[in-house]
Amino acid sequence: MKGGCGSVSVEMDAGLVEQERDRVRHISKVGYVKKVTNRRKKPCRRYKRPVPAVPKVLGELFVSCQKVFKGPGTIPSPEDVRRLCHILDHMKPEDVGLSRELQFFKPGNMLKENPRVAYTTIYKCTNFSLCIFFLPATGVIPLHNHPEMTVFSKLLLGKMHIKSYDWADPEASGNSSQPSKLRLARLKANDVFTAPCDTSVLYPTTGGNLHEFTAITPCAVLDVLGPPYSKEDGRDCSYYKDHPYTAFSNGETGSDEKKEAINNSYGWLEEIEMPDNSQMDGIEYLGPPIVETAF
What is the pTM of this model? Predict the structure, then answer.
């Protein structure tokens, strides 16, 4: 997303968020830190650390993404969408090295200051990327778009409010008195989701594919983006503020039921500068790695 990752100022030790100490800058970790024991060190022979086996479902996701996403302009077929959704629907937090037992995801784990979202990249190439976003309770990923991209989002842990829009048909915005900087959008989702739940999909051909995440409890969301963001290729992220349909409508005629249905189905979106709360911390991925040569 536009804005990238700032310097990391927090550390999540086994999922427990701590504030910066003594101005020491470091890479934060969410829940992957191994337990430390007080046992006396014993002499040991040098050995090669074995590479953790890739969980079957994570391997299937990677291979399927390679087959589905062939580069910019790729639009997955309905069959490919069903295939990826089927794989993601069966994914568990453990498949990417997470657990609901980690302190970060436990109820009552609240940050004292403004919560920042963190993200980690499992895999990225020019055709697609696999990322995890970590949202502390009340953390927000503001309303943003995904130009020319298909996005699969799987809530792995937590409870989250998701709102998503698609741009309305040109005919739907022709009878309004809205300022030119506003565009009419059709509300696609506006609900609370609790893990485990079905995968949500945003399509590039349905007009805009915009969404917003607001964490109710600490959350982890796995995103598959095909292709990923790229300023060089014109796939940069834009942010929006949504306004009620009634705020800039002409006062349509019709029954009260019809008016209410329209008001609840549409909204006006205003493109804005990158919000302050869109800043994220990039963190190291320490879950099962994807090794291309293994597939």
Answer: 0.76
With b for 16 or more beta-carbon neighbours within 10 A and e for fewer, the 269-279 pattern comes to bbeeeebeebe
Q: What phi and psi, each to the nearest 5 degrees, are found at residue 116? A: -115, 145
**Token pair listed for 15:** 């999922």
DSSP state of 235: B
Q: Reading across the β-sheet that carries 117-124, which strands appear in turn?
A: 5-6, 280-282, 117-124, 129-135, 219-226, 150-157, 200-202
Residue 223 CA, chain-centre distance (Å), reads 5
Tell me how far apart the alpha carbons of residues 43 and 48 are, in angstroms, rounded to a whole number.
16
Alpha helix segments (H runs only) across the chain: 56-68, 78-89, 256-265
Q: Note if the bond before 50 is cis, omega within 30 degrees.
A: no
Tokens 């059709």 -> residue: 186
Pairing label, strands 280-282, 5-6: parallel
Angle, alpha carbons 115-189-119 (nearest 5°): 30
Q: What is the mean pLDDT of residues 262-284?
A: 87
The candidate with the shortest Cα–Cα distance to 5, out of 225, 284, 228, is: 284
Strands 150-157 and 140-144: unpaired
Residue predicted with more confidence, 150 or 33: 150
